[in-house]
Structure formats: C-alpha cells, structure tokens
Write a structure and sequence with these properties.
Oligomer: homodimer
Radius of gyration of chain A: 18 Å
Helix content of chain A: 25-40%
CATH architecture of the largest domain in chain A: 2-Layer Sandwich
Number of strands of chain A: 8
CATH topology of the largest domain in chain A: Alpha-Beta Plaits
Shape of chain A: globular
Number of domains of chain A: 2
Chain lengths: 244, 244
C-alpha cells in the first residue's frame, strides 16, 4: 500500500495554517524557490525543515514528541556473508517499509544509519495522539518486514527467514531543530531520544519496547503489554519498559 | 581555522573534469537549478550527491574508501544531568569541530546521529592517500575537541573536563550511493563501514583505532602505533586494530 500523497504540506498547515502546495501546477512557483516535498516525509515540504531559521527565528525549540528507533537484527553478520547487491536490496526494503509505515502515521523519517532508522512523531505534523501513532507505526514496520521475509529468504537462504526488527519508543520533551553551525542537521536530541535508542537495543527480535510515558499516553494500544525494569547503558537507575 | 572554500566543486572536477562554480557570480545559474554547496562538504556540490542517478545511471557503485566514525564519550549520562541548552552547545561544538577537521582533509561528513558522526574519504573528492587523510582528520578531531575542553568545563563543571572522543577508522571496498527508494539516502555500506563503527565503540576515550588495511596504507602516520586483537560485535573472528 502506497501512502496517499497530500496536495498541500501537512506540516506548514498544522504549524502555521499556511497552504503550501506540494504537487500539481500550483506547486511550480514554490519549486522554483526550492520548496518541494521533503525526503523525510513527502507530505511535508522542505520549508518545514527550515522553519526554525526562516520562520521561528530560533535554532531549536522544545516540543512534546514521540521518538522511534528500529533496527535490523543480525545485519553485521549478514552483510559479511553475502554479496553487496543482496545487502543493498535488504537495506532498500527495510528503509522503504519503515518509510511507508512512518508516513502512513504522519511521522518524520529523520535518520537512516546503516541498519537503523530514527523517526519523530508530532513535528512538523501535529498529532495529539503521537504516542499511539508511533506504536501503530512500529506494528506496521513489524508486519511489513514479516511480509517481506519470504522474498528475503530467497536472497539470503535460510538466514533470510531469521531477519528481524527490534523497535524502541519513548515520549516526552525533546529539543528539536538545527544542530551544528557549519554542517546543519535537523534532528531531535535529549534524554527521550537516548532512551528510545537504548530501548531499541534492549528489544528482542520482533519486539517493540516502549517507555512508561508511551504506555500512559496510549494505553489502548498496549492493553496486552507487560512491563519489566531494564538496565540501560548511560542510565544509573533501571528504566521500566513495556513490551507492546 | 576555517576551511579554505573552493571556487569550483572539487568533487565534480575530480570525478568528471567538470568545472561547477560553487561561489561568486558564475554560480548563480547553477543555484537556480538547485546546484549549490553540499552540506556534507561545502567544497563539493549537491550535484555530487545526485551523481549516481543523474550522471552514472547507477544507484550504487563499489569504491575504495576510508570510513571514519567518531563519538562523544559519556554523552547519554551528561545529557540527563544538564539543561538542553548546554547539551545543544556541546553537540554544536562537536559537529562543527568534526566538520572542519573532515573538510580540511577533503572528506565527506556523511552522517551525524546523536553523539556520533560518520565520514567518508575518497568520494566525491578523490584522494590517493585517503587512509592517511582520514587518520589526519581523526587527529585533528581529537586536537580540536581537546582545545574546546576548557570552554566545556565552564558549561558542564568538572564533568566538562572529562568529555572525550573515541574514533574508529577502516579502509577497503564499500558500496556507495543511494539507499532506499522512497526515502533516498546517500551513504556507504559494507563490512568496512561496520568494522569502522565497531572499532569506534571499542576505542577508549581519546583513542583512535584503525584496521590493518589503514595501517598498511598509511604506515608513516602510525609509526608509534601498537596492535591488539579485538572481539567486535557481529564478527566471529577477532579483528586486529592499531591504536594510532
């Protein structure tokens, strides 16, 4: 299923009530100024990526958001044992399935880095239920990757069937904006981001681990979940995580 | 020291002998078509980032390259204990010092992800001595971050003095190009990238760990180095790394 493509930028509309055309004839003058669909979410525009500097006159803002990390288990071992064309096909599939799942739920695919991706929910597209949307996106990632497993088994043999994804999700206040003055990079930072990343590392294959804040914000998504305390790298106190 | 800015794109010149103006009046018509200095290296252009699709008609190519990972030690703990403005200033400083050090040595600052960065040497700017350049960039990163330590101590108190960087470097054949069909992302993948990342994790604070291939390609940079076998995650056999 392809994501339905928005005609006007959902980010600019949600943040500023400004209709920025993304597609069709009305988008032509905008494209001439470099305003086009964002790579991070094709239903938002490149203006959203620059909103801080150009519109808000601030380099970073504090926002409530949900952050999701997902990674491919066993990628390092797999990529040593197989030709690069097969590994490329695997990463293409992983990135694409993650992108579709995240965009379906109005998230921003902020980073891809080797076998991992990072997504942010609630900016630039506002969502009151950003925690629930992130959990739904995580389930969609797991389902989409499971559906690809047969094709992967063809490319990678028996190992293909073992290719799995682990997901970590955290909610709370993050600092979002441009970091680095010479190499500007749009991303979110803060303890919430660090916990989401560590939760992903702690997740077993095919597992989704979420923080208490995510559970509290989206209890109906996590009815059958169970909680356990985890020791996460860089955190002194144990952190309670729910398996979704 | 600021990096001297090139007038024509060093990448397009090196790869295709094509002079693409980056700055000054001659760059205006290029800018109208969206060709401007790249964020990954301001001495190369955005055409270099798209070279695969537009010029080479291939999504990925196999190239010899050197890959460098650097990360800030203790970032997770630090970012919990300090206000976000201080953490932002720390990341700004880290990204900027890394960027300058990498660009001075004609590398590409390919990724920033939280407390870590990834750089690639030998594309789009060709360098016969890419391994040596990466080692020099790593030393520059260590020196630049050490020089900032006093200012960091002011922002973070005693902990500021303990802020350190670990670096890992590997050389060899990587697959370089666009990954993901819906969310296109320019990066390098392969065992060399994985080893560089693992070497960075294995490096102690202020240490630079390089692979045998880097040592063989740049022995004069590593005269006083010592080797040791490391067990790296995802690798069955121990991997020999040199402390630069």
């Amino acid at each position: 299923m392809a994501v339905r493509q928005a005609t006007i930028c959902k980010g600019c509309w949600g943040q500023m009530r400004m209709p920025v055309p993304l597609r069709g004839i009305a988008s032509a003058p905008f494209r001439a100024f470099g305003i086009r669909p964002s790579r991070m979410n094709p239903n938002t525009c490149t203006l959203c990526e620059l909103m801080f500097e150009k519109v808000m006159k601030a380099r970073q803002i504090s926002i409530e958001a949900t952050v999701l990390f997902a990674d491919l288990r066993g990628y390092t071992a797999l990529s040593q044992a197989h030709p690069s064309a097969a590994v490329t096909a695997l990463l293409d599939a992983f990135y694409d399935e993650c992108a579709e799942a995240i965009w379906e739920h109005d998230g921003l695919l902020n980073k891809t880095m080797g076998d991992a991706i990072m997504a942010i929910f609630n900016f630039p597209i506002r969502q009151d239920d950003h925690a629930a949307q992130a959990v739904r996106a995580a389930r969609a990632i797991q389902q989409r990757c499971a559906a690809r497993r047969e094709a992967l088994a063809e490319a990678f043999g028996a190992e293909g069937a073992t290719i799995c994804v682990g997901v970590g999700i955290a909610s709370g206040t993050v600092s979002f904006g441009e970091f680095g003055r010479s190499h500007q990079d749009l991303t979110a930072i803060g303890t919430v981001v660090n916990i989401a990343s560590r939760a992903q590392s702690a997740a077993a294959a095919r597992e989704i681990l979420v923080t208490q804040a995510v559970y509290d914000a989206a209890p109906s998504e996590l009815e059958e979940g169970s909680a356990r305390d985890y020791r996460l790298k860089g955190f002194d106190a144990p952190v309670r995580l729910w398996a979704a």
